[in-house]
Amino acid sequence: MVDFWNPVFSSRRAQLMRYVPSTATYNTSAPPQDKYTLGADLVAAVERGIATYGCDDASPEAEFVRLARNPNIFNDAYAKLETYIKGINNHLKNENGVLDYMRVAETRRRTFRPPPRSRKPAHPLAEFELTLPYAQKMDPNFEETWVMKSDGTVEIATPAKSVWHPRDNQAHLIASGCPHSQGV
Question: Alpha-carbon distance 40 to 17, whole Å?
């Protein structure tokens, strides 16, 4: 549920990739929800990362740990999604709201497969040029990054909220795995 309103190219979730352990253990004698250690190891690694980096309460790390430790996660997630959907429906009632969503869609399209005239490299999965059309009436120099907000509205991303893209900043993983998951 971290940054669920931006399901692709989320810089907040990309920040969490550095904590993913390189291995997990399967325990046959553990209860079904605890058979794999990946979940617990990931939470422990993020908690160590918070201590190491001094993350504030608004960081993706802090949000992730709050969600992981929340015993009422399903009801809280349902309430967040319900608020989000109501916000979208309200925003779609006017022309500017529709244009906002078109900007978000175009941002995501151009992040995945930039127009040829931009001379930027495409995402490695963008193999075929005709599979994803462009909004032809959008400014060809469209450089703003539009992202969704949790209330269903949109905003221009600031550099701190920039859209993650694999060609810009790969997840901070090393060959031996997450430095915060060692000894878990």
Answer: 15
Q: pTM value?
A: 0.74
In 10 A of CB 22, how many CB atoms?
A: 13
What length does the chain have?
A: 184
Give residue-wise pLDDT tens across range 86-109: 999 999 999 999 999 999 988 888
Residue 47 — left, alpha, or beta (φ > 0 → left; ψ -120 to 50 → alpha)? alpha
Residue 44 Cα distances to 17, 18, 41, 132, 184, angstroms:
14, 13, 5, 40, 8
The Cα–Cα gap between 10 and 164 comes to 5
For residues 140 and 108, what is the distance between their CA atoms, to the nearest angstrom?
15
